[in-house]
Amino acid sequence: MRSAQNSTPMALFAPPAPFASNPLKTKADLAQFLTAHLDPLAAHTSPGGARIHLGHTATHYDDIAAQLEGFSRPVWGLAALLAGGGAYAGHTRWVAGLAAGTDPAGAEFWGAMRDRDQRMVECSALGFAIAVAKEQLWDPLGPAAQAHVAEWLGGMNDKAMPNTNWLWFRVFANLGLSRAGSPRFDAQRMKADMDHLDTFYIGDGWSRDGPEGVVQLDYYSSSFAIQYAQLVYSKLAQAEDPVRCEEYRNRARKFALDFVHYFDEEGRAIPFGRSLTYRFAMSSFWGALAFADVDLPAPLTWGVVKGLQLRNIRYWAKQAGAYYPDGTLTIGFCYPNQSMTENYNSPGSPYWCCKSFIALSLPETHPFWSSPEEPYPEALRGTIKALSHPLHITTNVGGHTYILSSGQQCSYPVKQGAAKYGKLAYSSAFGYSVPVGNGTLEELGGDSTLALSDDSGETWKCRRDTREARIEDGKWLRSMWYPWKDVAVETWLVPPQESAPLWHLRIHRIKTGRSLTSAEGGFALYGQGEDARPLEPSTGEAFGTFEEGGLGRAASRAGVSGIADLQGGNVSRTGKVIRTDANSNLMVARAVLPTLMAEHAGGGDENIWLVTAVFALPSIGEETGARSGWTSEWEKRPTIPRELEILIKGA
């Protein structure tokens, strides 16, 4: 393993992350980090304070709503800071903006609410702010402005809303109106919304993002929306709705024991699903647990929860590409990236991350702050866990945290949905990739997927609409995919084995009535060498790429990624390392992808069996490159489970 200090000077020449020097260990550190996010917004704020304009990229909704996003989303953090006894002189910008944005006769009026209006989303932060920081953000408004704010928020109570987590936004608006003592508070409407939201619950702490039939359990089921909202509600509505509040705390306890497996020892969360430009909002569930004073289940302690939250925020503080030079957030993930965004991501959207500042509302005496930070629990290291509700098998065996996935898809069209929900695996270290075009394999971003082409590689299809997905006996995932009417693909995903801990196994059975080309990718890996130029062929432990027969492998400062065509299938494939098009991977802008390629004749009743082993070992912390001795692990191979071997030989 190489030290980062051995990198060439020019390879490191880039503006540093603007907030990387903040240790982010104390409440004061976190408050400073929030202030560093709020300060740059002043230069982008309208004269009346109601709109924040951060860029010119468009969304499916109007630009006034986009500028409202820029105004409202930082309020998640500002309100928490003020509620916890902190101070921010610039909070008066938001007080003035509340008055200006809700004044129907004013120049900066946000516009009245309509059915399914994007403005509804932003009511959640404003309702939360009034509920927890009324003295600082509501009381200074004065009677006329208060009436305008209440009328604007209450304007959503008789409007149609999507049958999703959006209903929580109306609940939060009413929570704020209730705390303000406003006559626009609609208790009946709030109870009806709460009762309906509870129909999304499916057990063991998990809620889907919609009604029966929706199989979408991404970060909206946790930190972005549902779990977070339940926990905040359980604190704010305890007196009025004690039974439901206790139920939400019980759900959170169960959910926490699953959700912890989506985080690695360095604080990264596994990128999966949509809205990942919200970045460290992925960890806001942990702060919400503290806000709600939940009794933690073992092995979680307040020191562990504190570590999960703060390590994640520290990781993002070090990502230079997450910020423009003026300190405002970019649209993207680890760097600006429009290819991975959704049509609802405005320049202000990333500030949903401010939900993760909720721990600032807690006093220094709260055990979240008074407990020493603890590392990732020893009892949860080196584990494999099957999660029946999200249809994931999580693992951190071998120092690599990732999920095997089958069975989820967004319940409505979403940009790059196949990449966000349909890949076979998602890694906290290597992220995932999205297509940047509709032609070549290089454009596809085909990591952790089986891509198929029926036109000799002109265009490609990847798994999107997964059918019949299930976890069999807790041992592996099994699912179907039908890319064309005469093509059926059945896939088994098998987690690491004790004898080969750095590998996982994929088995595919293809029945096809047409000729196909297949390309199966491993994990995408940072694709530059020690001189910052593209990786070159090499063997052994040196940085570089390796292709031989049915093997493909790459090693770089990010670690090692490889793929092997195992004996056991009835097709011989060729190993390649593809240089994917720039900006396809969420975490690194220049990546390579170990891939297996083959041609398959169509027609007949013969099953095509592909048996694939995927190898990955990420680097650790500030070190660059995989841990020494990884080549001995590379020489190992997983074995085909006996039940599947019998199926392959008998079919």
Automatic annotation (TrEMBL):
It holds the Pfam family DUF2264_C. InterPro entries: DUF2264_C, DUF2264_N, UCP014753. It comes from the Eukaryota. Residues 26-376, 383-644 form the DUF2264 domain. This is DUF2264 domain-containing protein. The lineage of its organism: Eukaryota, Fungi, Dikarya, Basidiomycota, Agaricomycotina.
